[in-house]
Write a structure and sequence with these properties.
Number of helices: 3
Largest sheet: 4 strands, mixed
Number of strands: 4
Shape: globular
CATH class: Alpha Beta
CATH topology: Trna Endonuclease, Chain: A, domain 1
Strand content: 15-25%
Helix content: 25-40%
Length: 95
């Protein structure tokens, strides 16, 4: 069983939020256990999970949320660097 520290966030989140601000994309930060870290507010449903590196595993809750979002026609992004973040941000902007 994974042990979590209270309010532990991924190290990459600050850069992700800086990019969102730079591209003027708003977000809603979710709480632990909701299956993702953020909802990007844009042209279509964009759910974002922030990870520290490209070597990641989704939790059971994240896998469930991903399936629900994709079944509804949305996009579940896993971001861990500038390239993956910009892809999600630009999609939210309709680019």
């Amino acid at each position: 069983m994974t042990q979590y520290k209270y309010n532990k966030r991924d190290l990459y989140e600050d850069e992700f939020y800086d990019l969102c601000r730079a591209y003027q994309v708003s977000w809603i930060q979710l709480n632990r256990g909701q299956g993702a870290d953020n909802i990007l507010l844009g042209e279509c449903l964009q759910i974002v999970e922030v990870k520290n590196t490209a070597k990641y595993e989704l939790t059971a809750a994240e896998e469930k949320q991903k399936a629900l979002v994709e079944q509804a026609g949305g996009r579940y992004w896993v971001v861990f660097d500038t390239e993956t973040s910009l892809a999600a941000i630009k999609a939210a902007r309709g680019e």
